[in-house]
Amino acid sequence: MFSIIIIASVILLITTLVMFLASILSKKALIDREKSSPFECGFDPKSSSRLPFSLRFFLITIIFLIFDVEIALILPMIIILKYSNIMIWTITSIIFILILLIGLYHEWNQGMLNWSN
């Protein structure tokens, strides 16, 4: 029993030492202006590399992800139909689809689905 404690202590000490050495050796020495700037074929960039991003594209991406997850959750519901109680399955499906329809109505009401602006 005593030897197991010694072996565990030695392993803990070795892993701590290796993690400490890896942390010290992996640090970059200097933060250089040339290395932190974007690569532009050796020339200084004329404008900022961080262009403002349209919030519309972000919202459309989030809406796509929500409805993509919706499809991933609805498809297994169809498969388990024959293995579950039909009443519980129907109630669960209706509640799930109602929540998604309320979310869709809210997005439509807020104008997130309009591209005309």
Automatic annotation (TrEMBL):
InterPro entries: NADH_UbQ/plastoQ_OxRdtase_su3, NDAH_ubi_oxred_su3_sf. Belongs to the complex I subunit 3 family. It catalyses: a ubiquinone + NADH + 5 H(+)(in) = a ubiquinol + NAD(+) + 4 H(+)(out). Its EC number is 7.1.1.2. This is NADH-ubiquinone oxidoreductase chain 3. It comes from Drosophila yakuba (Fruit fly). It is a multi-pass membrane protein. It holds the Pfam family Oxidored_q4.
